[in-house]
Structures are given as C-alpha cells and as structure tokens.
C-alpha cells in the first residue's frame, strides 16, 4: 500500500454575504464578496484582475458533515431515477478533501474585496485559491456529459425563488 500524502492549505480569504445555507439549486444572481486576507495580501495582489470577466474559485465545503462521506457509488441527490455513479462522477460536497471549484462572474475589484455573482459558496466559506478565467484553459474538443446532469442542473443557476 502506498503512503498517503497529506497537505496543509491555508485560506487566503472568505466569502462574505450571499447565501447562508448551501442548497441544490437557484444560485443564479447570487452576489457575494470574496474578501482576501489583509494580513497576507496588499491591494497589489488583485492588480489587473479587473480585466477579467470571470474567476475560478477553489474553496472548502466547511459546512459538510464529515460523517457524510461515501467514496463509492451513489445516486445523485439520492434520486432513484438517476444512475449510481462513483464519487468522481459527482461534483457535490461529499468528497474526501471537501474541495469545491466554482466559476463566477467578477463584478468589481475593490482592493482586497472581489465582488462576484453566481458563486455557489456560502457566507463564511474559506477560499483557498482565486484564478482568473482564461478562455484558452477551457475544454478543448467536443464536450459530452451524462444526460442526468442536464436534468439535475436545469435550475442550478436559475434565480432564487422568493417566498
């Protein structure tokens, strides 16, 4: 058996505002701020970022129950109509390292505050990395995905329903 490697990472900031509870859908139009840690960075760290329309954010699913981990196969959202798929066939929060990646729209840079929209991370989420989105780094060639994902994500970025 190979030795397992572990790495220590440090939050470089946190999500401020936006939603307070993670939910499966209706993230469209959600606005928040990614507040970078002023004890680590100066405003120079965000210089030039305003030239980009989108960011790729790596974050930690900090509200996930650590006992809610399944490294095998399960049905997405526990829906009996969808096939069982392995942990690497999902993008959900039930992951070994509790890491999420989200692509969001950058609205404004204000010093160490990055104003964003459509970030599917909640208030207080530790942000581990911020990268500008380069179109050239997107998928190359024909794309395909399982049909159930299209059905499941139909309302993912739809506007939130107000009660």
UniProtKB/TrEMBL annotation:
Entries under Gene3D superfamilies matching the protein: YaeB-like
Keyword S-adenosyl-L-methionine: yes
Family: Belongs to the tRNA methyltransferase O family.
The protein's name in its UniProt record: tRNA (N6-threonylcarbamoyladenosine(37)-N6)-methyltransferase TrmO
GO BP of this protein: methylation
Keywords of this entry: Methyltransferase, S-adenosyl-L-methionine, Transferase
InterPro entries xrefs: TrmO-like_N (IPR023370), YaeB-like (IPR040372), YaeB-like_sf (IPR036413), YaeB_N_sf (IPR036414)
Pfam families hit by this protein: TrmO_N (PF01980)
PROSITE patterns the record matches: TSAA_2 (PS51668)
Gene Ontology MF term list: methyltransferase activity
Positions of the TsaA-like domain: 9-142
């Amino acid at each position: 058996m190979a030795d397992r490697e572990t790495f220590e990472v440090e939050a470089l900031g946190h999500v401020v505002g936006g939603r307070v509870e993670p939910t499966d859908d209706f993230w469209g139009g959600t606005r928040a701020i990614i507040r970078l840690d002023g004890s680590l960075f100066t405003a120079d760290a965000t210089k030039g970022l305003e030239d980009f329309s989108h960011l790729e954010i790596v974050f930690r699913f900090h509200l996930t129950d650590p006992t809610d981990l399944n490294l095998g196969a399960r049905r997405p959202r526990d829906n009996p109509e969808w096939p069982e798929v392995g942990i690497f066939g999902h993008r959900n929060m039930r992951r070994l390292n509790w890491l999420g990646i989200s692509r969001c729209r950058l609205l404004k840079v204000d010093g160490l505050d990055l104003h964003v929209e459509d970030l599917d991370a909640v208030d207080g989420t530790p942000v581990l990395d911020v990268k500008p989105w380069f179109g050239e780094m997107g998928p190359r060639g024909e794309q395909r995905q399982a049909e159930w994902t299209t059905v499941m994500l139909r309302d993912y970025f739809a506007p939130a329903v107000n009660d």
